[in-house]
Write a structure and sequence with these properties.
The chain is mostly helical. The protein contains 3 helices and no strands. The two termini are 43 Å apart. It holds the Pfam family ATP-synt_F6. It is found in: Mitochondrion inner membrane. GO terms for molecular function: proton transmembrane transporter activity. InterPro entries: ATP_synth_f6_mt (IPR008387), ATP_synth_f6_sf_mt (IPR036204).
């Protein structure tokens, strides 16, 4: 019975939360989609994001500006992780088998 009395309050509260959330998302999208920026720092940030996106797509989704030394270090670390965790596929969630006693 108490839930029936709380229903109008929950409905009004959810509409307020939805309005705030939508306003926040629209505000962020407007900043990212606009071509001109009023703030020089915002403009520089948007340019860096676009530059990083271009570099990332040209490397095939790998790390941007990776040196051969960094590549060998990452490969060594991944090899240690594979040894430590059983040579399995590191990109899939492990499967657990629980038995009842």
């Amino acid at each position: 019975m108490a839930a029936v009395f709380r229903l109008p309050w929950l409905i009004s509260r959810s509409s307020v939360v939805c309005k705030v959330d939508c306003r926040r998302k629209i505000g962020m999208a407007a900043v990212l989609l606009s071509d001109k920026s009023s703030d020089p720092i915002q403009k520089l940030f948007a340019e860096k994001l676009k530059d990083y996106k271009k570099k990332s797509s040209s490397t095939g989704g790998g790390l941007v500006d990776m040196t051969p030394e960094m590549k060998t270090k990452i490969d060594g670390e991944m090899q240690q992780i594979r040894k430590r965790f059983g040579e399995g596929n590191l990109e899939e969630f492990p499967k657990f088998d629980f038995t009842k006693n």
